[in-house]
Design a protein that fits this description.
Order of helices and strands of chain A: HEEEEEEEE
Strand order of the largest sheet of chain A: 2-1-4-6
Strand content of chain B: 15-25%
Shape of chain A: globular
Number of domains of chain A: 2
Number of helices of chain B: 8
Radius of gyration of chain A: 19 Å
Oligomer: heterodimer
Number of strands of chain A: 8
CATH topology of the largest domain in chain B: Purple Acid Phosphatase, chain A, domain 2
Largest sheet of chain A: 4 strands, mixed
Structural class of chain A: alpha/beta
Strand content of chain A: 25-35%
Shape of chain B: globular
CATH superfamily of the largest domain in chain A: Cupredoxins -  blue copper proteins
Mean pLDDT of chain A: 82
Strand order of the largest sheet of chain B: 2-1-13-12-3-4-5
Radius of gyration of chain B: 19 Å
Largest sheet of chain B: 7 strands, mixed
CATH class of the largest domain in chain B: Alpha Beta
CATH superfamily of the largest domain in chain B: Metallo-dependent phosphatases
Helix content of chain B: 10-25%
Number of helices of chain A: 1
Low-confidence stretches of chain B: 1-52
C-alpha cells in the first residue's frame, strides 16, 4: 500500500513539474514581439522555445539597432516603424543591445 | 556704456580663474546664449544682449570660428518637419556674424540616417555659407550600417584610423575625435586604445602655452550617464591635456547648450540645428522634444568661438536661430 501511495505521489509531482513549463511555453508562444520605445526594449527579458522567430519593431522617432553581444544577430539601423526578425535555432541566453545607444540592453532566453 | 550692469562678473576669490557665482550664472544663461571669457585669470560673463558693445571693445579676436552640430538632415518627424529650413537659418546666422569665422566645425549627426542624399544636402547647402572650410567629426547617425566608411570618404580625406585628426590654426591646436565607434553594451561613448595612443603622441610636442580645442560628438564629460551622455574613456584623453593652460572641449549630441569649467578645461555643448532634446532626466527618454512651433528656433542654434592671443581662454558664444 505504501508503495502505491509513493508511486501516486511521484506521478503527481512529475505531472505538475511537466505541466508548469508547458504553461509557460504556451504563454511565450504569443509573446514574440519586442517593442522599441523611449530608448528601451520591452519586454527587457523574453523567454522563447527553440525555433521561435522573434520580431522587433521600432516605435521611436530615432533609429535604433538590435545587435547581440556574441554577434549571433545584427540588424541594420531601424527607422521609425521598421522591423527586424531573427529565428533562434539554438538554446542559450542571448544578450543584445542598440549599438547606437548602448545603454539600451535586453535579453532573449531560448530554451 | 553701463559698467555697473549685473551681466558682468569680476570676482576670483580662489585665484584660479574661476568665479563660482560667475560660473553658475553662465550655466543659467546657457539656454538663452551667453559669452564667457577669461581675462588675466578673471572670468567675465556677458548675456547676449550685451554683445553689441562687446564688438567694438573686446571682440577683436585673432581667430574666430563657428561650431554647428546635429543637423540631422533627413529627419522629418513632428518635432521639426523642416530641418532644411532651420539649417538654412543657421547658415544665415553664420553669414551675419560680425567677425567672419575662419572655418566651421561640425560636431556630428550631419545626417539622420547616413543616406547619401542627406549628406549631399548638407554639403550643397554649406556652399552658400561665407565660411568655406568645414571640419567634421561623425555622430552615431553618420555611421549607420557601414561603420562610417561613407562618412570618412566624404569628409575624412584619407585620415588615419577611425577618422580622428588634428590641425593647427594661428597657434591654436585643434583635435577632432571620434567617440561613436565600437560602442559596448551598457556603455557610453568610446574613444578606444588606438585613438588615445594617437592623441597622447599628437600633443606631446606642443608647448604648454598652446591653446587646445578638442571637438567630438558625444560629450567628453559625464553629463547624464543614464542617457549615455558621456564618454567611457574621456578621463584618459583629458589626462594628456593637464599641462596645457587653456583647453576648450566642444561637443554636440545632447541638442542643448551646456557649459562647465573644471580647472584649465572649459566644456561646452552646442545646440542642434534640427530639434531640441529634454534636459537630463526630465523626460522618459532622450528622444526629440516637441515644443510649440513658435518656440522651436529659440532652442536651436550655432556656437561662435573667439580666440585672442594673450587671453587665457577662448570665448564661446551661443546664438539661437530665432
Amino acid at each position: 500500500m505504501k508503495r502505491v501511495v509513493l508511486a501516486l505521489a511521484i506521478a503527481l509531482a512529475l505531472g505538475l513539474a511537466a505541466s508548469a513549463p508547458f504553461v509557460r511555453a504556451a504563454l511565450d508562444e504569443n509573446a514574440t514581439e519586442v517593442k522599441i520605445d523611449n530608448f528601451s526594449f520591452t519586454p527587457s527579458t523574453m523567454s522563447v522555445p527553440v525555433g521561435t522567430q522573434v520580431h522587433w519593431i521600432n516605435r521611436d522617432d530615432i533609429p535604433h539597432t538590435v545587435v547581440s553581444e556574441d554577434k549571433a544577430f545584427k540588424s541594420k539601423a531601424l527607422d521609425t516603424d521598421d522591423r527586424f526578425s531573427y529565428t533562434f535555432s539554438k538554446p542559450g541566453t542571448y544578450k543584445y543591445f542598440c549599438s547606437l545607444h548602448p545603454k539600451m540592453t535586453a535579453i532573449i532566453v531560448v530554451h | 556704456m553701463d559698467h555697473n550692469t549685473k551681466d558682468e562678473i569680476l570676482h576670483d576669490h580662489h585665484h584660479d580663474g574661476i568665479d563660482r557665482r560667475g560660473f553658475l550664472k553662465c550655466m543659467a544663461w546657457a539656454g538663452t546664449g551667453a559669452l564667457c571669457l577669461m581675462k588675466g585669470g578673471v572670468l567675465q560673463s556677458y548675456s547676449l544682449s550685451r554683445l553689441p558693445e562687446l564688438k567694438a571693445k573686446d571682440a577683436q579676436a585673432e581667430l574666430s570660428f563657428v561650431q554647428i552640430s546635429d543637423s540631422h538632415m533627413g529627419f522629418n518627424k513632428p518635432e521639426n518637419t523642416d530641418v532644411v529650413g532651420t539649417f538654412k537659418a543657421a547658415i544665415d546666422k553664420i553669414n551675419a556674424l560680425p567677425l567672419k569665422p575662419a572655418f566651421m566645425l561640425h560636431t556630428g549627426d550631419v545626417s539622420h540616417l547616413s543616406k547619401p542624399e542627406e549628406f549631399d544636402t548638407v554639403q550643397q547647402m554649406l556652399k552658400s555659407a561665407s565660411v568655406k572650410d568645414v571640419f567634421y567629426v561623425p555622430g552615431e547617425h553618420d555611421m549607420l550600417n557601414d561603420d562610417g566608411q561613407q562618412f570618412r570618404q566624404r569628409f575624412g580625406g584619407g585620415r588615419q584610423g577611425g577618422g580622428w585628426y588634428s590641425f593647427d590654426h594661428k597657434g591654436v591646436h585643434f583635435i577632432g575625435l571620434v567617440n561613436v565607434m565600437n560602442l559596448k553594451a551598457g556603455g557610453l561613448g568610446n574613444l578606444g586604445g588606438e585613438q588615445l595612443a594617437w592623441m597622447e603622441k599628437d600633443v606631446k610636442h606642443l608647448s604648454k602655452s598652446a591653446p587646445i580645442v578638442v571637438f567630438a560628438h558625444i560629450p567628453l564629460w559625464t553629463i547624464y550617464p543614464e542617457w549615455g551622455w558621456g564618454t567611457e574613456d574621456s578621463a584618459q584623453a583629458l589626462s594628456y591635456l593637464k599641462r596645457f593652460g587653456s583647453v576648450t572641449v566642444l561637443n554636440g549630441h545632447i541638442h542643448q547648450t551646456m557649459q562647465k569649467v573644471e580647472g584649465n578645461v572649459t566644456f561646452h555643448t552646442a545646440a542642434s540645428t534640427a530639434f531640441p532634446q529634454p534636459k537630463p532626466g526630465t523626460a522618459p527618454s532622450a528622444g526629440p522634444m516637441k515644443v510649440p512651433a513658435e518656440q522651436l528656433r529659440s532652442l536651436l542654434g550655432i556656437t561662435d568661438v573667439n580666440y585672442r592671443r594673450g587671453q587665457h581662454a577662448l570665448a564661446v558664444v551661443d546664438s539661437s536661430l530665432g
